[in-house]
Design goal:
elongated; two-stranded antiparallel ribbon; HhH-GPD_domain; iron-sulfur; mainly alpha; 2 domains; 2 strands; 4Fe-4S; Endonuclease III, domain 1; DNA repair; Endonuclease Iii, domain 2; glycosidase
Length: 227
């Protein structure tokens, strides 16, 4: 029986606590060794799996050493280097332009503020949040990817539809100490159980408090459509 707890705050704390127990070692899955590699990996990860990104960056990071190398790269060659990534032509352009900005405006260093990061080509708030959290140890918000968006709506934590609006609501109900980790927990749960098309509600540790449970509900609150 999927029944929400009495308030979104209580629901949120219970969700996070249970997911901590279920995924105690949940963390970022992108592979990187410095802030620039992190930034590039996150740009590449948009609408692409982390597994695919990691397979591409293993060679990419060996070939290009520093922002100067990316900024000077031939556009077609860089695109070819990442051609198994979704929207690789656009992402190659973002990477070149971003690295040029880093060289010219930030002395070759990845900036450490939200405003400076989101001024870079192809960098939105989600990407900037990841870079701040894992590159600079600065937590200013909640990273809202497709897993976080889907599960926060399914679990009744928000009715918002845009990542920006969802982030604002989550920042109000998720304890600030959990802002970073809650994203990893949702991602782990989304990959293991709460998939987009066919969630395994029978195996879900949140089933009894999930108003979208297929065992008890006709509607997926993430999409608003019937199961």
């Amino acid at each position: 029986m999927g029944t929400m707890l009495s308030s979104t705050e209580e629901q949120t704390v219970e969700v996070v606590d249970r997911l901590h127990d279920e995924y105690p070692e949940s963390t970022i899955s992108l592979r990187f060794s410095n802030r620039l590699e992190l930034l590039i990996a996150v740009i590449l990860s948009a609408q692409c799996t982390d597994e695919r990104v990691n397979s591409v960056t293993a060679d990419l990071f060996e070939k290009y050493d520093g922002p100067e190398a990316y900024a000077a790269a031939d556009q077609e060659e860089l695109a070819e280097d990442i051609n198994s990534i979704t929207y690789y032509n656009n992402k190659a352009s973002y990477i070149r332009d971003t690295c040029e900005q880093i060289v010219e405006e930030h002395d070759g260093e990845v900036p450490d503020t939200m405003s400076a990061l989101t001024d870079l080509s192809g960098v939105g708030r989600k990407t900037a949040n990841v870079v701040l959290q894992h590159g600079h140890d600065v937590v200013e918000g909640v990273v809202v990817d497709t897993h976080v968006k889907r599960q926060s709506r399914r679990l009744g934590l928000t009715e918002q539809s845009t990542p920006e609006a969802i982030e604002r609501e989550l920042m109000e109900i998720v304890p600030e100490s959990e802002w970073q980790q809650c994203t990893h927990l949702f991602i782990s749960h989304g990959r293991a159980v709460c998939s987009a098309r066919n969630p395994n509600c029978e195996a879900c540790v949140l089933e009894d408090i999930c108003p979208s449970s297929k065992l008890d509900s006709d509607t997926d609150l993430a999409s608003g459509e019937r199961w």
